[in-house]
Amino acid sequence: MKRCLHCATTHNAIDWQCPGCGKVPDRVDSFPIMAPDLAQGGAGFPSEAFDALACVEAESFWFRARNRLIVWALRRHFPNMQHYLEIGCGTGYVLAGVAEAYPDSAITGSEVFSVGLPFAAERVAKARFLQMDARQIPYVDEFDVIGAFDVLEHIEEDEPVLAEMFRALRPGGGIAITVPQHPWLWSQQDENACHVRRYLMSELRKKVQQAGFKVELETSFVSLLLPAMMASRLSSKKIPPDGKSKSSELQLPGFINRAFEGVMYLERLLIRSGIRFPVGGSLLLIARKPREAK
Q1: Rounded to two decimals, what is the model's pTM?
Q2: Which domains are delineated in the chain?
Q3: How far apart are CA 35 and CA 32, in angstroms?
Q4: What is the mean pLDDT of residues 99-117?
């Protein structure tokens, strides 16, 4: 069900017109705009970064390895997923991987910056898209799975976002989340990426549980490469905060990029075999909304 953000009426109107108050969201390039005050910027991520991301993602070991891990986790925990929402879908790189893994599922992508939606729509033509603020998700009991991949660390109010995800899920549905891990890894790279935090595993688990979810999987990743990441973070302290190095960790010489991707492949095999890493540059969490939840 859709939820009107003006009067909270739930409905299934195709054009989003609320039968309760008559409100219809504006559209930009055919995309419904649910949070117009944030559509052009000011939400924890530089809107101009979409062009750079679109050029980097497909070749970067980190994006490629993260996609494979996410798809494995979704297939393992939600093999029958029929309706999926991604919060902060960016240029649609993860969304495209999910759509390929679930060709018969209804896919919805959301992004707070309207400028990012055309990138994602070009990558995933079958998906539906909308601009929205994750702190006000305009759905109730709608999705089997909601994904948020390296999104929560950009939002001060992460607990309200988790509560909104809980409401938007059908009973028995679940969430898939990745976030940067370990506050001690904080560096200029985080500043440049507009992060507001790096998470402790216990911190994310507690917030997810307080929202009503039951955790099914949590593991660090980018664990075998943690020494290299630590070295990069230490060197980044020498980089002036001018915004020019937002993706410097991801733009590596080809042979290093391929080697790191091989290490991440091994790491994914270990995670699939049941090993759970306690430390690593990033954290993956899967949790489920109880079926009896109301």
Answers
A1: 0.93
A2: 2-288 (3.40.50.150)
A3: 9
A4: 96
